[in-house]
Design brief:
With 71 residues, the protein is mainly β. 0% of the residues lie in helices and 27% in strands. Strand 1 and strand 2 form a beta hairpin. The radius of gyration is 14 Å and the shape is globular.
């Protein structure tokens, strides 16, 4: 009996790195299931997921969490 994609066991462990004041870093490629049911995919070797929801490219981090300083 085939399993649903979200229930499939991974081929190997996926490394997840939680940072203090920034994104969650994942070894890619990854698929992310969003609240509305859509699934987005990144084939990059490393992926930064936004945790602050300020990113214009959510769920991917665009460094919007960084404090802006005037020069």
């Amino acid at each position: 009996m085939p399993t649903a994609p979200e229930e499939r066991p991974a081929a190997g462990p996926c490394r997840v790195t939680v940072t203090g004041e920034g994104p969650v870093l994942l070894d890619g490629p990854v698929e992310v299931a969003l609240d509305d049911g859509t699934v987005v995919r990144s084939d990059r070797f490393a992926v930064a997921l936004c945790t602050c929801r300020r990113s214009r490219t959510y769920p991917w981090c665009d460094t919007s969490h960084r404090r802006r300083t005037k020069r």
